[in-house]
Sequence to fold (419 residues):
Amino acid sequence: MDYFAYRDGELHADGVPASEIAREYGTPVYVYSGGAFADGLRALKAAFGGIPVRICYSVKAASNLTLLGIVSELGMGADIVSGGELFRALRAGIPAGNIVFSGVGKTAREMAEALDAGILMFNLESEGEMELLAKVAAEMGKVAPVSFRVNPDVDPHTHPYIATGLRESKFGIPHGEAPGLFARALGLPSLRVLGLDCHIGSQLTTTGPFADAVKVMANLLETLRAAGADIRYLDLGGGLGIRYKDEVPPTPSEYAHAVTGALAGFPGLAGLTLVIEPGRSVAGNASILLTRVLYLKRTPAKSFVIVDAAMNDLVRPSLYGAYHAIRPVRESAPDAPVSTVSVVGPVCESGDFLARDRELPVVAPCDLLAVFGAGAYGFTMSSNYNSRPRAAEILAEAGSARVVRLRETYEDLVRGEPI
Ligand SMILES: *Cc1c(COP(=O)(O)O)cnc(C)c1O
Fold:
């Protein structure tokens, strides 16, 4: 089902006219579809059929408490990368036992918080981290459940900033070093190795790299099991891509099929529980960013549409050169005049753009535009640069809308700044 569709000539978000949301809550504004977000989670779970799988939603993609509440209601878990995300996930009611903790730079304090909460497991990324966690856990009189995040050295064919499973990456343990590290972990009584983990990158649009990674991991898992490890979880991270422009990413079932197909070559691994950490594939197309046209500006070189959203609201175009579809909220006729424009924000950087040299129907000041595919790494990457209060977040669901995060005020900007 398409949760962002034109009806009676106007874009609707999960049954609510986008213009009504803009009028009521102002712009720029992120509008999530509760239906799209929940469907994305359910579809992934369903794709694995009867195979034991835990879906741990990647909190960093979009992390407001309402979305995390949906995750919790569906009985699913969370993949976190900081103490702040742990706080959010717990606050939203996600049981600690459904939380996995990833990331290369966990601090002692974050480790203690997660041990205190009783999370499912820590995904360890280096020997130094393993030793620190063992020490923190021993001091607390606890045994830390861990998995090793291994770098399988497969090319995900994605943007270099979001490729994480290549040899040159800062992420994971080189797969050749995992057995040695495992042997050392056996000598640390405050650790219990429960899993193996990888996350090779984001916005993957083919299944091949996932299948390749599964094979590397499964081989390693057999080696570790032979060495006496009681490994129950194989965590495959996230990474499934979405359509921003004309990509044709694998469907959840094609993805699940690739994973289970690769595992079928390892009958000894039956009974293993898979962990999947989807972020973008669940949240990405579950939100649009609504923005209003402020000015049209024509220079001898270019035509600009200056809007009230900027790189501080949605940094992906500036950071990755990412493409986001942009369409007027009022549906334009198929034969409406078009022009080639750059859609830019008010921030004082030439890198502040939402689209460059894009063919768009001709727009006028005060028109509303929708930036599609803004749900993942959209609001969560937003900032206060240029002292711009961060946008409101709205949840639309089955024809009604409500605020899930208030628009920031000027007072919010200076909170915590003593004079
Ligand atoms: C970011 C991240 C994810 C989510 O990735 P997506 O591409 O958004 O699905 C999953 N696991 C880890 C460890 C991550 O860092």
Notes: Residues 58, 60-61, 79, 81, 102, 199, 202, 237-240, 277-281, 376 surround pyridoxal-5'-phosphate (CB under 6 Å). The chain has two domains: 4-32+284-414, 63-278. The two ends are 52 Å apart (CA to CA).
